[in-house]
Amino acid sequence: MMMIPWTLLCLFSFMVTVRGECFPALCEHGSCVEDECQCNPNFSGADCSIPFETCEDGERTCYNGSTCVRNNSRDPTTNKYKYHCDCTKAEGESPFAGLQCREQATTYCVVGREKSEYAFCANGGECIRLVENGKAHPGCKCSEEFEGQHCQYLKGEAPAEDLGQPYMLVPGEGGDSAKGIVIFVIIVVCAAVILAMAYVVYRKRTGKSNEATTAPSVTTVNHDESEVI
Description:
Layout: H1 6-18, E1 30-33, E2 36-39, E3 43-44, E4 50-54, E5 61-63, E6 67-74, E7 81-86, E8 96-97, E9 103-108, E10 120-122, E11 126-127, E12 140-141, E13 146-147, E14 153-154, H2 176-213
Antiparallel strand pairs: 1-2, 3-4, 4-5, 6-7, 8-9, 9-10, 11-12, 13-14
């Protein structure tokens, strides 16, 4: 049986909702109530297919499976910790970015790869240049309405630290070449340590052997006694 892509299901769900109809099968995480999908807790969207998490500060909501991460700084007024969304945990065929991880990738900026978890542009942005996998993403050329390294923010909403800084590959993301380099360095260091230890043992053994062969020998000298006349 051929499976219908979820995007078509979402579109169909939206269309039937507009027409005032609701099919329970299309409410992925919810149920039909008065011809609309009423979503279960922590799900949203016309068909209740978008998971979200509300952070403990009550000010941030992280969508598409992304998670809340506590900042190191506290709010000067409430003295409570602030939170941000970790978009690397978002679920979907394409990565997400933005304050709430709602902006989906539209263009990828890695040479020889159809997708990338960190080097991409959203909202129709264009890659400043293509990079090798694992290299820093220099950013995107955004339209007038958006800004940010991925064009994920509306104009004027981007945090200061996200402007003008290359987006690096973070631990756990793609980067086969980076992993290969790390493994190679570890192997080289281990080999150097083993060779150094072997050399020390060898020098100790050869030193003892030389001491044994060069030990002074005792020579007995016989003096002929002569008679004095």
